[in-house]
Amino acid sequence: MLKFLDIYPSIDIVSGYAMVSQTAIKITQGKHYNKAQVDNKILGTPVEVVNRWQNAGAKYVHMVDLDAAAGKGDNYQSIKEAVVKANAQVQICGGIRDDETLSRALNLGCQRVNIGTAALENVAWCEKVLMEYGDKIAIALDVKQIEGQYYLTSRGWNIINKMLWPVLERLNKIGCQRYVVTDVDRGGMLSSPNFDLLQQVCNKTASPIIAGGGVASLDDIKKLSTMRRQGIEGVILGQALHIGLINLPNALLATKSHDIE
């Protein structure tokens, strides 16, 4: 029997604080807010927010260092405090591009580390760590559609990089065991996931996929649950969860509403 869809509440960290996804993304992409606007979008410290999601029933969390992803410093100390105190399994991403940053992240005791930019810029290193760490590594495919074609983005979604399909083919060949697939135009936008993109990626890999970007309703979660057989293993909940549009206990129940035997 296939297990139910895994739910990963997102903790999007900027300057030591967990923020509402849409605001956090825009800040790291250069949008300026005044202090009152920023303060209104802060959810708390990473420790406070990971405790909030755990108390609501989360078994997993997705922790994003957006400063590190954009090359604007890092939030290592805040993430360390949260991971050490977490009972949930933590998936970490953002700015992990070499042996030093990878070792530092893995030594925290997280469940998994996501690699994004380095998969595009340093293929040899990526292959080495996939061979060495196996299931501890997932590759983040941050995708943007341009004139009907899918491209990968890097450096915190700020740079348009290579076309998706040749990169995915190469990553399959070098042993990637899991992908985190995000349509970046839907990140924080409450526009529903790009189900067509997810289905196409499922068709081109045997590795499980965690979906990110755009989840806006319980219906979105239910639809992703029906894609378990195609390879969708989990979903990241950000903006909709952060602003209360989706309630985490209800989201967890929604994953159990379909017969997936």
Automatic annotation (TrEMBL):
Q: Which GO terms describe its molecular function?
A: 1-(5-phosphoribosyl)-5-[(5-phosphoribosylamino)methylideneamino]imidazole-4-carboxamide isomerase activity
Give the location in the cell. Cytoplasm
Q: Which GO terms describe its biological process?
A: L-histidine biosynthetic process; L-tryptophan biosynthetic process
Q: Where is the active site?
A: D142 (proton donor)
Q: Which pathway does this polypeptide act in?
A: Amino-acid biosynthesis; L-histidine biosynthesis; L-histidine from 5-phospho-alpha-D-ribose 1-diphosphate: step 4/9
Q: Which Gene Ontology cellular component terms are annotated? A: cytoplasm
CDD domains reported for this sequence: HisA
Which EC class, in a word? isomerase
Q: According to its UniProt record, which reaction does this protein catalyse?
A: 1-(5-phospho-beta-D-ribosyl)-5-[(5-phospho-beta-D-ribosylamino)methylideneamino]imidazole-4-carboxamide = 5-[(5-phospho-1-deoxy-D-ribulos-1-ylimino)methylamino]-1-(5-phospho-beta-D-ribosyl)imidazole-4-carboxamide
* UniProt key word Cytoplasm: yes
Concerning Pfam families, the annotation shows: His_biosynth
Q: InterPro entries annotated for this entry? A: Aldolase_TIM (IPR013785), His_biosynth (IPR006062), HisA/PriA (IPR023016), Isoase_HisA-like (IPR044524), RibuloseP-bd_barrel (IPR011060)
Which UniProt keyword terms apply here?
Amino-acid biosynthesis, Cytoplasm, Histidine biosynthesis, Isomerase
Coiled-coil intervals = none
EC annotation from Swiss-Prot or TrEMBL: 5.3.1.16
Q: Which family does it belong to?
A: Belongs to the HisA/HisF family.
Name of the featured protein: 1-(5-phosphoribosyl)-5-[(5-phosphoribosylamino)methylideneamino] imidazole-4-carboxamide isomerase
Q: What is the lineage of its organism?
A: Bacteria, Pseudomonadati, Pseudomonadota, Gammaproteobacteria, Enterobacterales
Gene coding for it? hisA
